[in-house]
Amino acid sequence: MISVEQALAKVCEGFTPLGLETVSLDRALGRALAQEVPSQVSHPPVAVSAMDGYAVQARDVAGVPCTLTQIGVAQAGSGFDGQIGTGQTVRIFTGAPLPQGADSIVIQENTSVDGSSIKVLETVPPGKFVRPAGLDFRSGDVMFKSGKIISARDIGLLAAMNVPWVGVHRKPRVAIVSTGDELVMPGQTVGPDQIINSNAFAVAAYVATLGGDPLNLGIARDTRQSLHDTLASAKGADLLITIGGASVGDYDLVQSVMGEQGLELSFYKIAMRPGKPLIFGRFLDVPVLGLPGNPVSAGVTSALFLRAAMDVMLGLTPFHGALVNVVLGDDLDANDHRQDYLRAHLSIDSLGVQTAVAFPRQDSSMMARFAQADCLIVRPPLARAAKKGDRVDIIPLNFSRLGF
Ligand code: AMP
Ligand code: MG
After folding, report:
1. Ligand nearest to the CA of residue 223, numbered in listed order
2. Ligand 1 center to residue 277 CA distance, Å?
3. How far apart, in whole angstroms, are the C-alpha atoms of residue 274 and residue 368?
4. Per-chain mean pLDDT for the chain
5. Considering only Cβ atoms within 10 Å of each terminal Cβ, which end of the chain, N or C, has fewer?
6. Is the pTM of the predicted complex or chain greater than 0.90?
7. What atom of ligand 1 comes closest to residue 182's alpha carbon?
8. Residues in the chain with pLDDT < 50?
């Protein structure tokens, strides 16, 4: 049995970043940037007004009140062509280019207008309400490094950089094989000795959440032939996930059937709960993650190992079990030699203090509790009994790499 940290390191070693594809900005949300992105333009391209008012030379309005002559208008999209001289001004609107000769803006509230005579009531320092060229960024500035998930704000910035296409890592193709004689599909009649293949759906959704393209290859029955045939379709995937049949029961054939076909096993057991029996290796030249069949075990191991694998394939900093430290809301018993991941509720009080309370029953078949959990409390091997009010580490389950 190896530790969670060792297992995470081995999983990360088993993958490399996937190749690049170019997508339009319309399709870039949530994708992983594979290249640095320099801006094609400066923003703003020239000095522009930040207000509606009058473009002036600051030294011209050093003594107020004073009267200037309006010689033109500058709007966003159509600037003023001429030059402002002493005693002159140009009516200007937000976003319009600053006319030549002007260095600041008097806001319209500080003027009184009589035809083309503009009485200025307040002085302005040079540069007031002017956005200089390149205030935001300049042409050629590298605004993005690779290894970042593109958010909605990023999309806006990329568009402003005049970048219509971006290079992203292609989505990992993940083949999913469910195993078990007892499995039926949702919607079918469920006999007394059958259960619904919920994991196939959950795991596909974990893959999609983490930025991959899942493909369910169906259910292999607990025979060598059925497993052999179903697994063969995994060829060409970036990752094969098997579900169930990973332990040591008489019907747990996954490892032995793959073994007959040259499985290169990296590890098989992890000192964690839930999720002890977890296969990782290479099969048919595809990395394979053999998840345990219990739905919560499959979910927790996905939250750790599938996430790390996807991170590497997407060129992101791989997940290393990043933890958040919070207050424990209830006592916990001492732990044994396996790292525990307790499904827990997380609350936050008016001062922002976060408190985690583990659900009383931690059975790895309890999917409702798993779906309701806000976080996993991480209990290291041999952790001492903990009291309400102590600090504990958690992995939030509502994490999102996308942000706003
Ligand atoms: P196994 O790892 O195959 O021994 O399965 C452990 C437990 O998880 C058993 O109770 C199985 O019925 C259940 N299980 C296995 N595969 C799935 C699945 N795809 N969906 C839901 N439960 C499953
Ligand atoms: Mg089974």
Report:
1. 2
2. 12
3. 16
4. 97
5. C
6. yes
7. 12
8. none
